[in-house]
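User: My instructor asked us to take a sequence, write out its structure as tokens, and then describe one feature of it. I'm not sure where to start. Here is the sequence I was given:
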Amino acid sequence: MISLLKRQCLALALLVIVFPFFVHANTPLTPAERQASIEGINTILNQQYVFPETALKVSALLLQQEQSGALADITTQEQFADKVGDLMRQYSGDGHLSLALIAEQGGVSHRLKETEERKINNFAFEQARILPGNVGYLKLHKFWQTEEAHKIGHAALVFLSHSDHIVIDLRDSAGGSPQLVQYLISHFVPEGTLLWEVLDRNGKSTEQVLSLAVPDAELLKTKPLYILQSKQLASAGEFFTYTLQQLSRAVLIGETSAGLAHYTGAAQVNDWLFVRIPMFRPISPVTGTNFEGVGVEPNIRVSAEMALYTALRVVNKGS
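Assistant: Let's start with the prediction itself. The structure tokens for your sequence are:
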């Protein structure tokens, strides 16, 4: 009898350990709560979304879906975040616009939930090495918003500064921090260069982002620079490539990027839900616009798989 009880307790413990998300994945949602959440989202959209006209359109369509009964099959908080979030992106065409559960994300933040993995993986600076022909190669997976990432990025670029050409590989890079983008770009352009300007939802300028003073970077200012990109490249990584391209400072090789340009914030809807919402629009001083919805076009279009090979061919041909 005791042995059977032990086995039952062990089975229950394993169920809790292995399937804790099953409990959370069925948080019930009443029709009244669903309706109130739609109303809360619409209020936030119309107060904060970067394009007021788009906010009106999306909020009207969401309200129409709720009133028509099209959302009646949503009975949990998780279903709501997934389905309504998908509708918001569909109606707006904005991949940055999303819903998230406060409990799952550990709070309300525009940043995706992070783990200690970033420290294990050198803050996303995967490789810094010299390829045959004295070509400096840097592979970066994400633009982390930490002082450590700034230090590692600086050390990597200084290490590569005595190469004849530099190739930065962003083909597997996600988004991240515009501050790290600004800092890394500052290695390649003169101090005080206007990199981009930030506009609010009314088109008013709120900030001018200038390149910074960076020590030990003089050799990098005139170094031939090639950046590899893929169709998955998004957000902060795109701003890195787009800014350097528009300043005629880099040649982009690969595929057209994802097209997610806007600064994103977070706004709480209720005690369990929040919106990640684009609030500001950075623009290039060269083009007066950005790459939202269209992506960053490469100078040399090849598949992502062929981008490094192509860059090395271009470098060797020019040497």
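For the description part of your assignment, you could build on this observation: The longest strand covers residues 273-283. Try explaining in your own words what that tells you about the chain.
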